[in-house]
Amino acid sequence: MDFTVSQVADLLDLHVKTVRGYVREGRLKAVKVGKQYRISREDLESFTGAPLASRPRQDRYVEVSTIVQVEAISRLDMDRVSTAVLGSASGLRVEMIYNEERASLKMIILGGPGATADALRMVEALT
């Protein structure tokens, strides 16, 4: 089983930026898949010096991946939507791509179900 940087941060009770730093420094082995790092169980156990089974069980983690496509949106409206979503995206990872020629906005939202639902409601209200 492979872990994301967020999952490792939760398991080790560290900030995500700290885990990313360990990966970039080479202290924690990881493989980059797309834009995300993946850490194997073996590499994580090697890093911590203890098997994961001996660690206390963590709370369940649920993450939602959502792709939102908005067609016929002007650059001005896209700026308004992206500013609002990014400004309120606490706990979310958001990627936005705007195609000016097609007047098309694509958003990829990753995060907990509640925060993702809030972001989607905001997108709906602004579009």
Automatic annotation (TrEMBL):
SUPFAM superfamilies per UniProt: Putative DNA-binding domain
GO molecular function, one term: DNA binding
Family matches, as InterPro entries: DNA-bd_dom_put_sf, HTH_17, SinI_DNA-bd
Pfam family, one: HTH_17
Signal peptide: none
Domain (Helix-turn-helix) ranges: 3-47
Protein name: Excisionase family DNA binding protein
Source organism phylogeny: Bacteria, Bacillati, Actinomycetota, Actinomycetes, Streptosporangiales
